[in-house]
Amino acid sequence: MTFTCQAQAVQSLPPGTYRLLDIVDNPSTGRTVIATTRSSLDSLLPNWTTATGESVEQYVYDQKSPSVFYVYPVPPADHQLNLLVSQAPARIVITDFDTDTQLFSLDDLWLNPVINYMLFRAFSMDMETEANMQQAQSYLAMFANDLGLKWNVDQMFRQMLQGSIGEN
User: What predicted TM-score, i.e. pTM, was given to this entire model?
Assistant: First the structure.
């Protein structure tokens, strides 16, 4: 995504963005932007948050504050950067199941994991029979496998049945 900078070191990610994955480059110059740590910049350039330049050379991103990142040097207002980010997909609201033709807003790559998760949720809401419990567990395992997760599905399923995992 193309991001427009403010003329300051701290930059706020757009609404709906979960986290910054990478800053690719300054599209106007093609100059790549290198990830660094705040401690590195602090020790090498104590006044780095006030140094200005024409393009961004380095950035700092801390998971403890996922909605902001810092750039060095401070770019001019309206400077553009190419970012890789993780964003929330648009919500799908269906009011009429017979006529609604909304499309899945994610890349088709995510279709199977979403279907498996939806089936897991559907079967886990009807746990009156052993068969439904097994179906739910099976769909949860397929969902985890689709995402490449290395977790113990049986343990997660047990916690869910015991009410240890909150529902959203």
Answer: 0.65
